[in-house]
Amino acid sequence: MDHTQASPSPARWFRVFKRTVSTENPVRKTSTSSLCEEVLKKSQDAFASEKTKHYSFRLLQLEAILRMLESHEEEFVAALEKDMRRPRFETVLSEITAVKNEALYAINNLQKWMEPEHVHKNMTSLLDSCFVQKEPVGVVLIVGGWSFPIQLCLIPMIGAVAAGNCVILKPSEITTHTTDLLHKLIPLYVDACCYHVLNSEHGELLEILENKYDYMFYAGDRNTGRQVMQAAAKHITPVSLVLGGKNPCYVDKSCDLTMAARRIAWARFVNAGQNSLAPEYILCHSDLKDALIRELCCCVREFYGNDPRESPDYGRMASAEQYSRVKNLLCCGQVAFGGQTDDGERYIAPTVLTDVQENDIIMQQEILGPILPIFTVQTLEGAISFIKKKGRPLAVYAFSDNIQVISHIMSRTSSGSFCSNDSMIQSLYTSLPCGGIGNSGVGVYRGKYSFDTFSHSRACLLRNSTVECVTYLRYPPYVEKQLQLMKWACTLSRNNSWCNIL
Question: Would the pTM count as exceeding 0.85?
Answer without folding.
Answer: yes
